[in-house]
Specification:
Layout lengths: L9 E5 L2 H4 L7 E6 L2 E12 L4 E5 L2 E4 L2 E2 L23 E2 L4 E5 L9 H4 L2 E2 L3 E10 L5 E2 L2
């Protein structure tokens, strides 16, 4: 999830918030990885149930509008992938989410293996506690 998180950074996961509410676009979630269910991945929610998501000219579109991604540095390119080729609009299913890593050029995410089922989401990234210079609430 570089540039917002680094390797070896430790986070606390809020496992209760989604028992009382639904994941929202922009949330950073931890989930059982579709390609390797014994591993947990951390990614950002891009598409919600019923959304239409596509990648055109290296930009993400949700419901026909360019996605505003203030959390990414200027000039970040979002390349298509096997599940989400250039210009192919994906309609997110019920209880599914499209997730992308912030390190778009080096992320195994929904562009490669498709949506994440709601029941696979463990929780939301909540608090960074290591290294000490990164301590604080995850926004």
């Amino acid at each position: 999830m570089y540039p917002n998180f680094d390797d070896k950074e430790y986070l606390l996961t809020n496992k209760l918030s989604y028992r009382f509410g639904q994941p929202a676009r922009g949330d950073i979630v931890i989930f059982a990885a579709p390609p390797e269910p014994t591993e947990d991945y951390i990614k950002r929610i891009i598409g919600l149930p019923k959304d239409k998501v596509d990648i055109r000219e290296n930009k993400v579109y949700v419901n026909g509008e360019p996605l505003k991604e203030d959390y990414l540095p200027q000039g970040v390119v979002t390349s298509p992938g096997p599940f989400m080729p250039e210009g192919k609009e994906i309609t997110v299913g019920d209880n599914e989410y499209i997730v992308f890593g912030d390190n778009r050029s080096n992320s195994s995410d929904s562009r490669r293996w498709g949506p994440v089922k709601r029941e696979k989401i463990v929780g939301r990234a909540w608090f960074a506690y290591w290294p000490l210079n990164k301590i604080g609430v995850v926004h």
